[in-house]
Design a protein that fits this description.
Layout lengths: L11 E3 L8 E5 L3 H27 L4 H29 L2 E5 L16 E7 L7 H12 L8 E7 L4 H24 L6 H6 L6 H23 L10 H11 L10 E6 L14 E6 L10 H16 L4 E6 L3 E2 L4 H9 L8 E5 L18 H12 L11 E4 L5 E2 L2 E2 L20 H10 L24 H11 L3 E4 L7 E2 L6 H19 L5 H9 L1 H11 L5 H16 L11 H23 L4 H16 L1 H13 L16 H8 L10 H25 L8 H13 L1 H8 L9 H22 L1
Parallel strand pairs: 4-5, 4-8, 5-7, 10-14
Antiparallel strand pairs: 1-2, 2-3, 6-7, 8-11, 9-15, 10-11, 12-13
Length: 745
């Protein structure tokens, strides 16, 4: 992860009954600097707004008035985002856990049971072997095995995924004892063998078994069906055909299959295995499914009827466990009587593997996943990030002081399941609660019980609503990353993912539970603003688009809209730009980032603002007006060899035909033309004094747009810009310039 966050001097220690502490917390040392700088910067913003107001008041033409008003609106949006960002900088903290002290206050046999939820939806976008690796990595935790139950939600209802997990169950009987015997850290077999840990005959043998399983699973995926030859026994084949016979239908009943039973299944060393349970909820075109939130609520009910563990871990299908002690670190908080009563969840940062050196698509998302969450943690706790999160089951059922009871007592968070997971009554109830019409009996699911509906960003919505109910959360950020996820390796996938998030966040931002209104009232100004920054993320498109086009079109028409270098107001603009970028750079570097990745981070912020935020906002408002609807598109985890090679080399992937590349290309063309116009004016003898700010903005955009120019003119690979995109963008840029000539004349 790079450098660890610096700590201040005031350390809070939590210990139980005189025993050694389970965890500590201390403020970051840069907090004082953040507060002082915020005061200075705030005065500068007020001065800028005064300058805009004065210019607006003294405008003598409609064009001058309109340009100033557009800049004022853009700077007001930037001001909102700056103010909301300060909430993360006022009280950032860092924590440390001492899992070795857990056994000094409680026996391992007294550790709470753990249910793990893993969701997948499409075997062709989320290859089953990757999902299998995620499941195996948590099944092998350094935690009482009989207390672990792994539930895999297959929302695609695929025989390919079910087959993969049938094979995984067999391999797990070899893998789990191997990990524990050899104290393996990388408990995903794929990650382990990538590091060439095959120096012993035992490791070589395990690798052979794994590779055999992997070949089977990938061959089945390639063929698109499971041939009888891949199923070892007649009994197993008969059961498999029975479970999957309805998967080919768009509407199919629920399938719940116990692949490993912790009460009786043992590994090759004779030790009991964890529960491994495959779940494909019932699907019907007549019933709403609520995307991932619906799948998670189905798991919440199915697990409640089968094991009902008090602790739940939610994972993305590609979030591999990277530290077998992770649940023990979470239990340092979840088993602490001082923190437990109001603690909804313990969130681990999202860390990713396979990112190229410069992180060209900002996949690391350091500000969202590592910097902001430390600021959240100093307030009421971090937002839920969708994966790597340990919940108290009780938090899904109302506020800390008021239990929202489910329809049947067997789903209550304190209900004790005293029957085997494969008993007829348990399985019957599990199928019942996984049916389509179960939720129709109650309006509570998705509103006051379970994961919240109403947004494609169910993680953000759920965490926000929990905190509004009075729950707290805690960030757990150990030196060794707890989980490692995969990243999109194409620009189109990265932008589509961002667009989906933008839509989901706007759904919350413009709902009755908007953080700007409901959130401020329920959580206070700081937490409300912190959540509001994310909710209105897509609004970054307003200032980014304005500054990407307005100064440049004005310069092309020889209209100068910023102060001259010789005027005092110029230094205000210079301070605001350098101060914002300088502090962002400082935050990034102190969080362990590199200069290269910081540059990619700020460049991708501009790219998002001109593409995914624009199209995400448009789609949301069209849906809001009832003109169109959108669905949930799974981000592909499939890796193409050529694309992977270009990604490793730091080369942008523009090969897809998407309108989001058109807007980027139009901006690149306009900025290059504007810079050329400015340089021509200087060469003609015009003073740089009045041109400088607009030329600087154009030049800054041109430097950031280099991958676009390269993709248009200098590349011949499949990742180059499509000719169609280049032509359309050129025509639009020309049309935009012609319109500006009419406006500025």
């Amino acid at each position: 992860m790079g450098a660890r966050p610096e700590g201040g001097s005031a350390i809070q220690v939590t210990s139980i009954g005189g025993h050694p502490p389970l965890h500590t917390v201390k403020p970051l040392a840069r907090t004082l600097f953040n507060r002082v700088f915020a005061a200075i910067y705030a005065l500068s913003i007020l001065a800028l707004l005064f300058y805009h107001a004065k210019t607006l008041f003294y405008s003598t033409t409609l064009v001058s008035f309109s340009v100033t008003l557009a800049l004022l609106i853009s700077d007001l949006v930037l001001t909102f985002f700056w103010v909301s960002t300060q909430t993360f900088r006022m009280f950032p903290v860092c924590r440390k856990q001492f899992p070795e002290n857990l056994t000094k206050i409680m026996e391992r046999s007294d550790f709470p049971a753990l249910d793990v939820f893993i969701c997948t939806a499409d075997p062709y976008k989320e290859p089953p072997i990757g999902v299998v690796n995620t499941a195996l990595s948590v099944m092998a935790y350094d935690y009482p095995t009989e207390k672990i139950s792994v539930y895999v939600s297959d929302d695609g209802g695929s025989a390919l995924t079910l087959f993969a997990f049938m094979e995984a169950a067999k391999f797990a009987t070899h893998w789990l004892p191997f990990c524990k015997k050899n104290n393996v850290l990388e408990r995903s077999p794929e990650a382990y063998f990538e590091l060439n840990h095959t120096c012993t005959s035992e490791a070589v043998n395990i690798k052979k078994i794994y590779e055999s399983m992997k070949v089977k699973v990938e061959h089945v995926l390639e063929r698109g069906k499971v041939d009888d030859e891949y199923i070892s026994s007649d009994q197993e084949r008969e059961a498999f055909n029975k479970w999957t016979r309805n998967f080919t239908r768009q509407d199919h009943p629920a399938v719940i299959q116990v692949l490993l039973d912790a009460s009786k299944d043992k590994d090759i060393a004779g030790y009991l295995m964890p529960n491994l349970i495959y779940v494909s909820r019932e699907k019907s075109k007549a019933s709403p499914h609520h995307f991932k939130a619906g799948a998670l609520n189905a798991l919440l009910r199915v697990s409640g009827s089968m094991t009902n563990a008090p602790i739940i871990l939610t994972l993305d299908c590609d979030s591999l466990s990277n530290d077998p002690e992770t649940p023990l670190r979470a239990m340092c908080y979840l088993c602490d009587p001082a923190t437990r009563p109001q603690l909804a969840y313990v969130q681990f940062p999202q860390i990713f593997r396979g990112i190229n050196k410069s992180d060209i698509y900002n996949a690391e998302f350091k500000r969202l996943y590592q910097i902001n969450v430390m600021g959240f943690d100093g307030l009421s706790g971090p937002n839920y990030l969708g994966t790597g999160c340990f919940f108290q089951r009780r938090a899904f059922y109302g506020s800390p002081s008021s239990l929202a009871s489910p329809e049947i007592p067997e789903l209550a968070p304190d209900y004790i399941v005293d029957k085997p997971v494969q008993s007829r009554s348990v399985l019957a109830l599990a199928h019942q609660v996984a049916s389509c019409n179960y939720e129709s009996r109650s309006s509570n699911w998705g509103s006051t019980i379970g994961f919240r509906y109403g947004s494609l960003s169910e993680d953000y919505h759920t965490g926000f609503r929990m905190q509004c109910e009075g729950w707290k959360s805690i960030l757990c950020d150990p030196d060794r990353p707890a989980f490692l996820g995969d990243v999109p390796i194409t620009l189109n996938d990265a932008l589509n993912q961002q667009k989906r998030w933008s839509i989901g966040l706007l759904e919350v931002g413009f709902s009755e539970y908007s953080p700007a209104t409901f959130g401020v009232k329920a959580l206070g100004l700081s937490m409300g603003l912190a959540y509001a920054q994310s909710a209105f993320w897509a609004m970054w498109s307003i200032p980014i688009t304005a500054y990407a086009f307005l100064p440049q079109l004005a310069l092309l028409n020889k209209v100068y809209i910023f102060p001259k270098v010789s005027e005092p107001w110029f230094f205000l603009y210079a301070f605001l730009f350098l101060g914002a970028y300088g502090q962002d750079y400082l935050d990034f570097i102190l969080a362990g980032g590199s200069v290269q990745r910081w540059w990619s981070d700020q460049r991708f912020w501009i790219i998002r603002g001109l593409s995914s935020y624009v199209f995400g906002s448009a789609e949301f408002f069209l849906k809001f007006l009832g003109i169109s609807a959108f669905g949930f598109n799974v981000t592909s985890k499939v890796v193409d060899d050529e694309q992977s090679r270009r990604y490793e080399q730091g080369i942008f992937e523009f090969g897809a035909d998407t309108p989001m590349f058109v807007t980027l290309t139009v901006a690149a063309i306009i900025n290059l033309s504007s810079l050329a116009q400015g340089l021509a004016e200087v060469f003609r003898g015009n003073s740089l004094d009045g041109l400088f700010v607009q030329m600087f903005i154009s030049g800054f955009a041109v430097v950031n747009s280099w991958p676009i120019y390269e993709a248009i003119a200098l590349r011949n690979d499949k990742g180059k810009m499509p000719l169609k995109t280049s032509i359309i963008a050129t025509l639009l840029a020309g049309t935009l310039y012609a319109a500006s000539c009419f406006i500025f004349r």
